[in-house]
């Protein structure tokens, strides 16, 4: 099945089964804004909990805060967002559609990579076990030709980004004959910058109002509270401050469902270190963060690091953790060495000292910062993409199952009476009442037991318990596993421990150290 078809099915599945809805749908929606449904909000909360506990429980020197969305406008001047938070945009004159120039070029480069990979896959099928991929890539004329083209465009692209050369970005688009996906033409405008921040006014009267911004990132709320947390928590460098919160960007080219939205959530941690030690900590956090992703069990081949072509004005090292989405490898997490830029800028603009006194060195200094930042909505999409599975059952049917890591599943256990009589519903309710304090449970009595299993598969429930007449006789139930569809008879008293062993968040957290 084509990747585009899989993505369309995932989007459709999200709406049909209560994961994600278009926002304001009865009013024909609002572009690039989505609402999370009953199962989507549970999944989202479980992802947050996994991240939060991995940060704050496994790292005793990391604590959490929750800063305000509205902040003093000088903060965004100090951070550089007022002057430099821009995207390079280009319009196609025929379709009237607007695109990010850098994304058009990145997509072009990705297509060249795909061509090389297809050549490799064809050769792999032809030669079998004797295939030497490294040798093939270094000698095959078609691969070498595409590699040369890729490297030439890539070098121009990287230089244009670093030089902020908008004319060169447009020239690359022209030279590579990149067409508008809608009109199919190359009738492009000039490239220009567009600031992404949403602005509003704070105050009761127009004369007394102050222009403020919806925060485009959560990091600055951490920086301005750096000394508050350090002093009240008696924190010693190195230490980190974590935060989960909403951010807002006026994305003109919002696309790919919840991958790029105007209102989104970030999970960020800023780790404060001694100057000169930042690059070693950068490497440590790269390893720690990829372990967090790999513990989900989706496979190492689904992830890769991608170093930045253009470093942000505050960084001396930066990389992305990319996940293989249905539309290619895309960023889900960024890891950056931000130097001491932010704290020094806030010290300059506020007039307040932002230095730390190090008792071991007996001196004051401005700490350097390592940042880890995840787009929660992107993480949500990557987990859905990995979990979505279509399988042929033994009776020839196709079942759609979301194979979530069990601790993240929205519903952990479904309890079903075989029939809606003879005291079976009452017994099922009794079982749920006992387990609901530990697990998210669901009672389901509608339709045949097979249809109920399929419904639970479609929302990713790891276990189903069926209560039948034998239950009333000997206190046993049938436990069905989502992934294997295996059914076994167990005692009611055994349900808790069996389910808990698989769905407890500890099961995921313990894997991180083993990756």
From TrEMBL:
<keyword id="KW-0963">Cytoplasm</keyword>
<feature type="domain" description="Aminoacyl-transfer RNA synthetases class-II family profile">
    <location>
        <begin position="177"/>
        <end position="417"/>
    </location>
</feature>
<dbReference type="GO" id="GO:0004820">
    <property type="term" value="F:glycine-tRNA ligase activity"/>
</dbReference>
<keyword id="KW-0067">ATP-binding</keyword>
<dbReference type="InterPro" id="IPR027031">
    <property type="entry name" value="Gly-tRNA_synthase/POLG2"/>
</dbReference>
<feature type="binding site">
    <location>
        <begin position="249"/>
        <end position="251"/>
    </location>
    <ligand>
        <name>ATP</name>
    </ligand>
</feature>
<dbReference type="InterPro" id="IPR002315">
    <property type="entry name" value="tRNA-synt_gly"/>
</dbReference>
<feature type="binding site">
    <location>
        <begin position="375"/>
        <end position="378"/>
    </location>
    <ligand>
        <name>ATP</name>
    </ligand>
</feature>
<feature type="binding site">
    <location>
        <position position="217"/>
    </location>
    <ligand>
        <name>substrate</name>
    </ligand>
</feature>
<comment type="similarity">
    <text>Belongs to the class-II aminoacyl-tRNA synthetase family.</text>
</comment>
<keyword id="KW-0547">Nucleotide-binding</keyword>
<keyword id="KW-0436">Ligase</keyword>
<keyword id="KW-0030">Aminoacyl-tRNA synthetase</keyword>
<protein>
    <recommendedName>
        <fullName>Glycine--tRNA ligase</fullName>
        <ecNumber>6.1.1.14</ecNumber>
    </recommendedName>
</protein>
<feature type="binding site">
    <location>
        <begin position="259"/>
        <end position="264"/>
    </location>
    <ligand>
        <name>ATP</name>
    </ligand>
</feature>
<keyword id="KW-0648">Protein biosynthesis</keyword>
<feature type="binding site">
    <location>
        <position position="100"/>
    </location>
    <ligand>
        <name>substrate</name>
    </ligand>
</feature>
<dbReference type="InterPro" id="IPR036621">
    <property type="entry name" value="Anticodon-bd_dom_sf"/>
</dbReference>
<dbReference type="Pfam" id="PF00587">
    <property type="entry name" value="tRNA-synt_2b"/>
</dbReference>
<dbReference type="InterPro" id="IPR022961">
    <property type="entry name" value="Gly_tRNA_ligase_bac"/>
</dbReference>
<comment type="function">
    <text>Catalyzes the attachment of glycine to tRNA(Gly).</text>
</comment>
<dbReference type="InterPro" id="IPR045864">
    <property type="entry name" value="aa-tRNA-synth_II/BPL/LPL"/>
</dbReference>
<dbReference type="InterPro" id="IPR033731">
    <property type="entry name" value="GlyRS-like_core"/>
</dbReference>
<dbReference type="InterPro" id="IPR004154">
    <property type="entry name" value="Anticodon-bd"/>
</dbReference>
<feature type="binding site">
    <location>
        <begin position="331"/>
        <end position="332"/>
    </location>
    <ligand>
        <name>ATP</name>
    </ligand>
</feature>
<dbReference type="Pfam" id="PF03129">
    <property type="entry name" value="HGTP_anticodon"/>
</dbReference>
<dbReference type="InterPro" id="IPR002314">
    <property type="entry name" value="aa-tRNA-synt_IIb"/>
</dbReference>
<comment type="subunit">
    <text>Homodimer.</text>
</comment>
<dbReference type="InterPro" id="IPR006195">
    <property type="entry name" value="aa-tRNA-synth_II"/>
</dbReference>
<feature type="binding site">
    <location>
        <begin position="264"/>
        <end position="268"/>
    </location>
    <ligand>
        <name>substrate</name>
    </ligand>
</feature>
<feature type="binding site">
    <location>
        <begin position="371"/>
        <end position="375"/>
    </location>
    <ligand>
        <name>substrate</name>
    </ligand>
</feature>
